[in-house]
């Protein structure tokens, strides 16, 4: 089961050595393209959208490694939710006019 806070990144441990921290990775993941920037994983930090389950580079999502949210929803999913709410509101407004 995947959780929203699965992030893949390179971190430096206390000895000064780079340590790869990966979640749910396999051999093919290095060249896998999932982010809207159309660039592959290639070891760059990524986070998974809780709505569409798309993996996005932290830099593309404008998230700092030091401030990774517990739950992440990508901009595309946030925009689609906003559009649905806005269209529902406009439909309700036109219905109200007919009822008056």
UniProtKB/TrEMBL annotation:
CDD domains reported for this sequence: PHD_PHF13 (cd15632)
Record SUPFAM superfamilies: FYVE/PHD zinc finger (SSF57903)
UniProt GO MF annotations: chromatin binding; zinc ion binding
Subcellular location field: Nucleus, Nucleoplasm
Gene Ontology terms: cellular component: nucleoplasm
All residue ranges annotated as the Zinc finger PHD-type domain in the record: 34-78
Pfam families assigned to the protein according to its UniProt record, in alphabetical order: PHD_5 (PF20826)
Function of the molecule: Modulates chromatin structure and DNA damage response by regulating key determinants of chromatin compaction and DNA damage response. Binds H3K4me3-containing chromatin and promotes DNA condensation by recruiting corepressors such as TRIM28 and H3K9 methyltransferase SETDB1. Required for normal chromosome condensation during the early stages of mitosis. Required for normal chromosome separation during mitosis. Increases both chromatin-associated levels and activity of H3K9 methyltransferases, such as SETDB1, thus enhancing H3K9 trimethylation.
Protein name: PHD finger protein 13
Organism: Callithrix jacchus (White-tufted-ear marmoset)
